[in-house]
Design brief:
Strand 3 (36-48) and strand 4 form a beta hairpin. The chain has one helix spanning 69-74; strands at 17-19, 25-27, 36-48, 53-58, 78-83, 94-100, 105-107. The chain has a 5-stranded antiparallel β-sheet. By secondary structure, it is mainly beta. The protein is 5% helix and 35% strand.
Length: 117
């Protein structure tokens, strides 16, 4: 990962903020791209939007501490993925999610500065 993101070299062993846009995450059951990693995440919300489906997946249980489902959507521990309308992923599934690793973004958690160098 450091070879693709040299700015990470100064942060080895330290915390960083990871970001990825929803369009760079997909349903692994529908196929993955060449640089995609597949992770399994619990699905908390599915939104049918016509030409796409957005799913909200928990990254860790802390994302779901609130009693209100809306709290889950706003949590920074929730991954939002823009899926093809053919996806069969449903709320409650432990779904295989493909993440295009070539589209990952890293940030310094103290300054918010991008670690692209």
């Amino acid at each position: 990962m450091v070879a693709e993101h040299p700015g990470l070299a100064d942060f080895l062993g330290r915390r960083v903020v990871l970001g990825i846009r929803p369009e760079h995450v997909s349903d692994a059951a529908l196929g993955t791209g060449g640089s995609a990693a597949v992770i399994s995440l619990p699905i908390r919300l599915r939104e049918e939007l016509g030409s796409e489906v957005q799913v909200h997946a928990a990254i860790r249980t802390a994302a779901h501490a609130g009693a209100d489902a809306a709290d889950e959507v706003r949590s920074p521990s929730t991954l939002i993925a823009k899926m093809a309308p053919q996806t069969a992923i449903a709320v409650g599934d432990l779904a295989p999610i493909a993440v295009d690793c070539s589209q990952l973004h890293f940030f310094d958690p103290e300054t918010g500065t991008s670690l692209r160098r």
